[in-house]
Amino acid sequence: MLQAGDRAPGFDLMSDNGTQIRLRDFKGKTVVLYFYPKDDTPGCTKEACAFRDAYAPLSKKAVLLGVSLDDVKSHETFKKKYNLPFPLLSDQGAAISKAYGVYKKKSLYGRSFWGLERTTFIIGPDGKIRAVFPRVKVDEHPLEVMEALS
Predict the structure, then answer these.
(1) Residue 11: CA atoms inside 13 Å, Cβ hemisphere, count?
(2) pTM listed for this prediction
(3) Residue 49 annotated in active site
């Protein structure tokens, strides 16, 4: 997994509204890039809604982007259902998730599978990673991010 001080890998991903979003589009700005396992599941919904509720103050300090392996249609539905004010990016091939080191072997109920480990990166205006939050606790996470941005 990438660490603070590493250069953030660039990306070019489709967003929930069908537009391409590239990391380089935000050069000179701070970006909060949060990876989550799956749209509309309990933990991911809780995390997305917590970011939604913290969006007004957070958006004054950084651009917020969510990333999962779900397709654009799933993101569109999830975003509308919970009134999420930030883009959700589709990494269906897991290329970006792998580049950031968050695509991992997981197990649930005795079954092994590959998926995303819930992780957030704060990327500075210079394109370098300023902070990494691995295996976050969804309830407290937006507050942690806000503190790190201060």
Answers:
(1) 25
(2) 0.95
(3) no
